[in-house]
Amino acid sequence: MEIATLFLANAAILITAFVLLWLVCLGLRDVTPIDSSWALGMVVMAASTFVLTNGNAERKLLLLTLCAVWGIRLGWYMLWRWHHHGSDRRYVALLDKAKRNRGWGFGKASLLLVFATQAPLLFLVCLPVQLGQVDTGPPLGLLGYAGAALAAFGIVFESLADYQLVRFKADEANDGKVMDRGLWRYTRHPNHFGDAVSWWGIYLVAAETASGRWAIVGPVLLTWTLMKWSGAPTVEGSMRRRKPDYEDYIRRTAAFFPWPPRKV
What we know:
It is a single chain. This protein is mostly helical and about 260 residues long. The protein is about 70% helix and about 0% strand. The longest helix has 29 residues, at about 55-85. The N and C termini lie far apart (about 55 Å).
């Protein structure tokens, strides 16, 4: 299948899925489920590409498996967090601001500010699992295996960071405290770091092919988003307002890439 046809088919699937999810969120009056759909939507893109392309079978299966393990784990975790902790404060603030400043209702604001922005981002970030499945050759080689190992490391790193945070929050003695233990001692955003590493690994698997090399926009965009836009900046803004000790945590802890804590 030609790349243009593949993109059109996947875009149609993605738009349909996001419109249906938007209708569900209208009934819930909550757009927080978009977070789990971000991860699960990439799995859908990988699976649809697996069905629609005739690329190297071994590489296709590896890309689909890595994306599925990453996406199902993260998607389930985001659904669990929504169920236990309720609506995401970021989305509540965003939609309230749109209502105050622009007079937009929930439907219009959620469609234009959340769904219409996240759908194209999702499509671009998961380019490695789309373009990496197109070419019939070369066979899976050293770069592909190295990428798979890197992706596996990122998935484990991110999963462990989420687990440590859940355990920390479950202890009532930690109410109001800053999580600075485990992986969180070495980076303020180990979950985001693991996320980025996972997709750089997936990209390396795809980059063994001529078409897959063009997918570098995916991990670059994801890393920039996590470091500079909707990842670390939004989390840290909220943490600074709610936890006075967070400023000290910032001074001694690496922002994104893990590093031993500084002495303050």
